[in-house]
Design brief:
single chain, 7-stranded mixed beta sheet, 1474 residues, 11-stranded antiparallel beta sheet, alpha+beta
Length: 1474
């Protein structure tokens, strides 16, 4: 419960004070009116006594009276009967005082921490909080030191004070009956004593005539106190003193007083500032006077204010929907407003409410200052008069009456209590029924006569209570309570119970606990039996304050909540608010109960017309519900806050509240959300009014700022006819981190190639499209006259559609200072388009052209992207600030289309903006970054506009989408310069450099034959001659390949002028592996003018090629076994045989009918194909599906050439009528590109192997590697085979001829090579080993050592010998040994070997070598040696002579190895018998 400065004891004492009436003569009223006050108002600020008084109780004990206050009122007579409820005038008074007492704006914030909640109370009053109370000064001290703080509610205290003062006097109690009457006469009267007599008679008539029920008097013998008022500025002071002396003689010195006033004139002492203590009292008294005089128009008609908005809303809703929309519904029920008209009608109520919210100065009612004629001495005179009257007149009068009443009661104690009671029952005791005799006694309608002994006890108790003799008062109340209960006089009993409880609480030292049950019984009796809510409310206010002081907040809250009812919204609102404060002052604060009851209080305040208090309650409750997942409660509170704020002419707060409803993820229905949106738009429109220069922020739709994407450059043109445009970058593409890294790597290659192989330090990757994943730490660079497209992601969180119109970007542009005159300041250079957009003016396009989207509709809960375009025309710094648009609720088809509705919908369009604020990535570099949350910059919306740059577009013609593996296809590429700047330095790089070639300039021209046949190759017609030797051409590799994968594009003059375009042929070759291949091109070009911020530009292109299988080529080589002197055409070099297996592995899906092998070519620096030695006579090799052909060629070493440049020998062996020049474009280009690709792959594999095997090498490995090097050089072949084919394809009943080439690289003799790359096999998992490994086995000599020596046996195929004549047949055999290596070799020949091979056992082996059976020889490098051996046969037959074992090793090496004889053909000899 809210706190006040007064302690509870002071509050209760001030609730019941001695009442004093005032009767003034007209002249005396005139004297006091000089100060703009009447006499009662003049005394009011001084009615609290500053010194102690004393009285003696009936036992003659002195009782101290502390801090006594008296209440002085003018006598107002009324014949009205006593009512159980407040009059309408009193209700208006209470409504006014609550309305006029509002929290001060901008006051010091008061924070209360309750559990997990921090509650904010803005309050200008003093805050006292501790649940225990002592004296007033001690409370002030505790406020400054206490850890507990609660909010004060001065409007409640003002209400409570005025309620207690305005309570009608009742017959069942005497506390607010008048004890004395002040008779005031001016000293200027002719005969003052006569006027005193008249006033005295008037008072007697009012009290005893019986004509008036009000005012009520405490005792028949009312104290009359005579006051002579002397005006110091007018009257004769000596005459006044003389009259006063006469009065003292007449009335006694203790019964009269001379009060001198008005010592100050208006003209004198104008500069002196005299305090005005009357203003705080006059506001209330003025209201009292207004309300007492019924002819004064009420300032706030409570019934009207309570219900006017409800009636308007209800009428409107029934008219629109047929559904009641009253604010009198349950407070947590949301109003379903079906159109924006609800706030149209609310605005009409403002005029009424402005009357209720008038300022306190107006309510004070007085023009001019109060007490203008009074000096500080006059203030002291008044204060002294009150003290004199109280101590010398009032307190002795009360003391005398207490003694009299006590004596009367004591004199009756002799009677038996039971007999006294029985007598009353028999004879009625003088009690008179109020209504009829038939009414039962148990009702509250029983009235006692004034002289009834029960009332005398009550009267004595009240007198004791008023002079703070609480112990005696409690005793009397307790006695009276018993009597009233026994008589079933419930109203009297309830009054006695109430005061007994209060007296028990106020007793010093608290001898007995506070009897809360007395209060509960009293409240229940007042409310339920007596139907008197006024008395019940007073009882509840007192009891709640007492319970709160004892820390019993739960009981206090329960009591206050019980007192809420439908008969008074204002009382219910105030009590609910106090109950809410009780919940957060508990030891364990119940914050949600606090919030709930604040909502209920706000609802009742709203019904009572107290809009400001209602708004405050909702605001305070919102602190609890906010951001805690109570979305429906939040919506209700915000909606109510919005409506109340709008009604109170606070449209800015209304906009904020409605904005909250729309920005929360609402769980409301679509109808409700539509109502919220319309209310918001209407309020927003009223806030803006005609001032739309500075556009406020709109809450809808949401903008995902981090998802904003920015694209620099023109959107690419689509395909034009057969032209296919380069894909480049567009906003339709998803961002891929791996792809971005790949493009960056390609661009680095291009930049390095353009800068002599070095990437500059200032290099930045070109980023055409920026998003949240790109590097946005630097300002992006845009180009003049090239559009900037910003893609903004909008999300509509509502279930209703939104309609956006005139959507465009807001920007700020700072031009380059160099282009501006020096006189302009920086502020003038910075230009924005916000004002133009706000006013709807089309801005000049001299700086930046801003595209406007006229309509942009969003469905319910839809996420949609808007692409907004800017076109800069000058260089400088551009900052994209946000978006501006007009927002409206999308009209549904069900809505009426009348003229009125259309006008309403036009009004519901509001213009506003939203900022585009993008937070950069979180920093995580330094310790400070890691300890706190810091974010780096994100500059994607702040581009720098640079001078013009060239812009190139690339188009592809006749570009295929499907190829056979190795197929050659010719296409064309067109380069267009669409800018106003010339471009140069055109280059391209690709992820698949072996896929395409532009050809070399020297070999590009085509022959007439190939042009006729539409062939991509350069061909020559040749005659088919058997045994044709290959034609040779020497070519330098530099003519074809470049050092890196970057290709310079050969355009004429190396420059493209503005508007110029050029077309170049482009040869493509299908990748060797089947499947879909993603091939990326990156084109690079520069401006002819250097020194720009943008050094170069790039253009991306991605194609997907689907390849299907064609041919599989397997090739192997072996050394020729033909000796040199037998090979006439092999002049001086060792020959080799090349075997080529070609298989058609096409699956006929592409419609391929057959393949023709038209030519086999070779390219090498050391070897060449010499001639075809295929046994088949037909040269043309045709292959249908799954057919296989075997071709055999003889290869010889190339002739040595002594040029410094390495040259390749191309040898062509055509199998048809045409010879294709393999050394020209495109055959040679693809050969060299394929070689470089395979070499780079081999280098990668070799480097990985080397790195893995280079660890822990011992002497054994070193020796083995040395041997391997010798052998490798011995067996190196390095012969590249190019197989050129043609395929006949049937497509759409037409026969097409496709052509292509396959490459096989024969590196080593004896090893088979294939055109198909072998698929990598997955490595098997290896088990973990925990034991130490065994020592490595002894390394056997490598098998390659067997190839150091080549052996040949020369012998006659048949030999005839007469075995009859000579049983031994000796045949001479020549063994030729050739050293194939470039090292000296030791050879051992052993003839004693018997073959165990089962194949050779089939042939007769019963022969023997005669003569020397073992030889040890040494062969020099590449030496050829012949040995003559003799074989001896015993009988005729077929014999295999291939039995000698030949061992060889390099000289100086320990390892030795047998030469490989098993792979050789068996040397068969036939021995015939003659």
């Amino acid at each position: 419960m809210a706190q006040c400065v007064q302690s509870v004891q002071e509050f209760v004492q001030d609730s019941f004070v001695p009442m004093v009436a005032v009767l003034c003569s007209e002249e005396a009223e005139r004297v006091t009116r000089k100060n703009n006050l009447n006499f009662a108002e003049l005394l009011r600020p001084f009615c609290r006594l500053t010194s102690e008084g004393h009285i003696r109780d009936p036992n003659n004990q002195v009782q101290v009276v502390k801090n006594l206050r008296i209440c002085v009122n003018n006598v107002v007579i009324s014949p009205n009967t006593v009512s159980a409820a407040l009059s309408p005038a009193q209700c208006r008074l209470l409504n006014e005082v609550v309305l006029s007492c509002q929290p001060q704006e901008g006051a010091v914030t008061n924070m209360i921490t309750a559990g997990d909640y921090d509650l904010n109370f803005s309050d200008h009053s003093l805050k006292a909080s501790t649940p225990w109370y002592s004296a007033w000064k001690e409370t002030l001290l505790e406020v400054s030191t206490s850890k507990h703080y609660t909010a004060t509610t001065p409007w409640f205290e003002t209400y409570r004070e005025n309620f207690l003062q305005s309570m009608p006097a009742s017959d069942h109690e005497f506390l607010n009956h008048y004890l004395a009457c002040l008779l005031v006469v001016s000293s200027t009267e002719t005969v003052p004593v006569e006027h005193f007599l008249k006033l005295s008679q008037e008072q007697h008539r009012i009290q005893h005539s019986g004509e008036y029920t009000n005012p009520k008097w405490f005792i028949p013998n009312t104290l009359k106190y005579y006051v002579l008022l002397h005006d110091m500025s007018e009257g004769d002071e000596q005459r006044a003193d003389a009259v006063y002396e006469d009065m003292k003689q007449r009335y006694g010195s203790q019964g009269c007083y001379l009060l001198k006033l008005n010592s100050r004139t208006f003209s004198a002492e104008e500069d002196e500032q005299i305090p005005d203590p009357w203003s705080q009292y006059l506001q209330r008294s003025n209201m009292h006077n207004q309300d007492v005089l019924e002819d004064v128009a009420p300032t706030v008609n409570i019934t009207a204010v309570e219900n006017n908005i409800s009636e308007v809303d209800c009428h409107h809703s029934i008219e629109k929907d047929g559904v009641s929309n009253s604010l009198e519904n349950h407070p947590l029920q949301l109003e379903t407003a079906s159109s924006s008209g609800t706030l149209h009608t609310l605005s009409a109520v403002n005029a009424d409410l402005k009357k209720g919210a008038r300022d306190p100065e107006t309510l004070a009612g007085g023009a001019g200052s109060h007490g203008a004629c009074l000096t500080l001495n006059d203030h002291d005179h008044i204060r002294q008069f009150i003290q004199e009257f109280t101590f010398r007149g009032l307190l002795p009068h009360i003391e005398k009456n207490i003694r009299q009443l006590n004596d009367q009661l004591v004199s009756r104690k002799g009677l038996s209590r039971s007999l006294f009671t029985a007598t009353k029952k028999w004879f009625g005791g003088g009690k008179v029924p109020e209504k009829s005799i038939s009414e039962p006694k148990s009702t509250f309608g029983l009235l006692y006569p004034p002289e009834a002994p029960e009332l005398q006890i009550r009267k004595m108790a009240d007198l004791c209570f008023l002079v703070q003799h609480y112990e005696l008062a409690y005793s009397c109340y307790h006695t009276a309570k018993k009597d009233f209960l026994s008589d079933q006089a419930m109203l009297y009993a309830a009054g006695a119970l109430e005061m007994a409880a209060v007296s028990a609480f106020l007793q010093a030292g608290a001898p007995r606990p506070y009897p809360a049950h007395y209060m509960d019984t009293a409240i229940q009796t007042y409310r339920d039996v007596c139907k008197n809510m006024v008395l019940a409310e007073r009882c509840a206010l007192l009891s709640a304050e007492i319970l709160k002081s004892q820390g019993k907040y739960s009981e206090a809250a329960t009591l206050l909540i019980k007192m809420t009812s439908e008969d008074s919204d204002l009382r219910s609102a105030l009590l609910l608010e106090q109950a809410a404060h009780c919940f957060i002052n508990m030891r364990n604060p119940m914050v949600r109960k606090f919030a709930f009851h604040m909502i209920l209080a706000g609802h009742r305040f709203s019904k009572a017309g107290q809009r400001r208090h209602a708004l405050r309650c909702y605001y305070q409750a919102m602190q609890v519900y906010k951001e805690r997942g109570w979305s429906l409660a939040e919506d209700h509170i915000n909606f109510t806050i919005g409506r109340q704020s709008f009604t109170l002419r606070q449209p800015e707060n209304a906009v904020i509240a409605f904005r909250q409803i729309l920005t929360n993820d609402s769980r409301q229905t679509a109808t409700q959300q539509g109502a919220f949106l319309r209310e918001y738009l209407y309020v927003y429109k009223s806030v803006i009014g005609g001032n739309e220069v500075s556009l406020p922020q709109l809450p809808l739709p949401y903008i995902h700022s981090s998802a904003t994407r920015v694209y620099f450059g023109h959107e690419r043109r689509l395909a034009e006819g057969e032209k296919q445009a380069a894909t480049h970058v567009s906003l339709d593409q998803e961002y891929d981190q791996d792809l971005a890294a790949m493009w960056c790597h390609l661009e680095e290659q291009l930049v390095a190639a353009a800068n002599r192989g070095i990437v500059p330090v200032t290099f930045q990757t070109t980023q055409c499209c920026l998003n949240s994943q790109t590097d946005n730490l630097r300002h992006p660079l845009a180009v003049v006259e090239e559009p900037i497209i910003v893609e903004v992601t909008f999300r509509n969180p509502l279930k209703v559609s939104l309609s956006l119109s005139n959507l465009s970007l807001v920007w700020r542009f700072t031009a380059d200072c160099a282009s501006q005159s020096k006189e302009k300041t920086t502020e003038e250079l910075s230009i924005t388009n916000e004002e133009n957009l706000a006013l709807g003016i089309t801005q000049k396009d001299d700086l930046v052209t801003t595209e406007v989207i006229p309509e942009f509709n969003m469905g319910s809960e839809e996420t949609k992207m808007a692409r907004l375009r800017l076109l800069p025309h000058r260089t400088g710094q551009l900052n994209i600030v946000g978006v501006v648009y007009s927002l409206a609720a999308a009209s549904s088809g069900e809505m009426a289309t009348s003229t009125e509705d259309q006008q309403t919908s036009d009004l519901m369009v509001v213009r506003g903006r939203q900022e585009l604020k993008i937070r950069g990535p979180r920093l995580n570099q330094t310790k400070e970054d890691k300890m706190s949350v810091r974010h780096g910059p994100d500059l994607r919306l702040d581009p720098i506009i640079t001078p013009p740059m060239p812009l190139m577009e690339v188009f592809f013609l006749q570009f295929p989408t499907a190829l056979l593996c190795g197929e050659i296809r010719k296409a064309y590429v067109e380069f267009c310069n669409v800018s106003s700047v010339a471009l140069c330095g055109l280059r391209v790089v690709s992820t698949h450099p072996d896929f395409f070639t532009f050809g070399s300039q020297a070999t590009t021209p085509l022959s007439p034959t190939s042009a006729e046949n539409c062939s991509a190759y350069k061909t020559l017609v040749t005659a088919t001659e058997p045994g044709l030797v290959a034609s040779e051409i020497l070519v330098s590799a530099e003519d074809f390949s470049q050092s890196s994968g970057v290709m310079e594009i050969p355009i004429d003059g190396c420059t493209l002028q503005p508007g110029e375009s050029t077309q170049l042929p482009l040869w493509l070759r299908g990748p060797d592996q089947e499947g879909v291949h993603e091939i990326n091109f990156l084109f690079y070009y520069e401006s002819t003018s250097k020194g720009n911020k943008i050094s170069h530009r790039v253009l991306r292109h991605t194609v997907f090629i689907c390849t299907s299988r064609s041919l599989s080529v397997q090739a192997s080589a072996c050394r020729s076994s033909v000796p040199l002197h037998h090979s006439l055409d092999d002049k001086g070099g060792n020959g080799a045989l090349v075997f080529i297996d070609v298989e058609n592995i096409n699956t006929s899906e592409a419609g391929v009918r057959e393949f023709h092998i038209v030519q086999v070519s070779s390219s090498s620096q050391h070897w060449r194909l010499h001639k075809c030695i295929n046994p088949a006579k037909d040269k043309d090799c045709k292959l249908i599906s799954r057919e296989r052909a075997k071709l055999c060629f003889r290869a010889t070493r190339c002739k040595p050439h002594h040029d410094a440049i390495e040259k390749y020998t191309f040898a062509d062996l055509n199998l048809g009528n045409e010879r294709i020049i393999s050394s020209s474009t495109p055959c040679g280009d693809f050969f060299f590109r394929g070689c470089r690709t395979s070499e780079s792959q081999q280098v990668d594999v070799a480097s990985s192997r080397t790195s893995s095997s280079s660890k822990n090498q011992g002497p054994t490995e070193n020796r083995a590697s040395a041997i391997a090097n010798i052998v490798k050089k011995c067996n190196e072949l390095d012969l590249n085979i190019i197989v050129i084919w043609k395929a006949y394809v049937v497509e759409d009943n037409k026969q097409l001829i496709l052509e292509g080439q396959l490459h096989v690289a024969l590196q080593t003799i004896g090893k088979e090579a294939s055109s198909l790359t072998p698929r990598e096999e997955t490595q098997e998992m290896v088990l973990l080993k925990f034991k130490s490994e065994l020592p490595p086995p002894v390394v056997l000599p490598p098998a390659e050592l067997s190839q150091l020596i080549k052996t040949n046996l020369h012998y006659p195929e048949t030999y005839t010998h007469p075995f009859v004549q000579d049983s031994l047949c000796v045949v001479p055999v020549t063994l030729t040994l050739s050293n194939c290596s470039l090292a000296q070799v030791d050879v051992i020949i052993d003839l004693r070997h018997k073959s165990t091979d089962p194949e050779s056992m089939e042939v007769h082996s019963s022969f023997t070598w005669v003569g020397q059976t073992q030889y040890k020889l040494q062969l020099k490098p590449q030496e050829v040696l012949c040995l003559t051996l003799r074989a001896c046969f015993l009988q005729a037959g077929v014999y295999n002579l291939n039995t000698p074992q030949v061992f060889a090793k390099p000289t100086g090496q320990g390892a030795i190895c047998e030469t490989s004889q098993q792979t050789a053909i068996p040397a068969l000899i036939i021995i015939n018998n003659a």
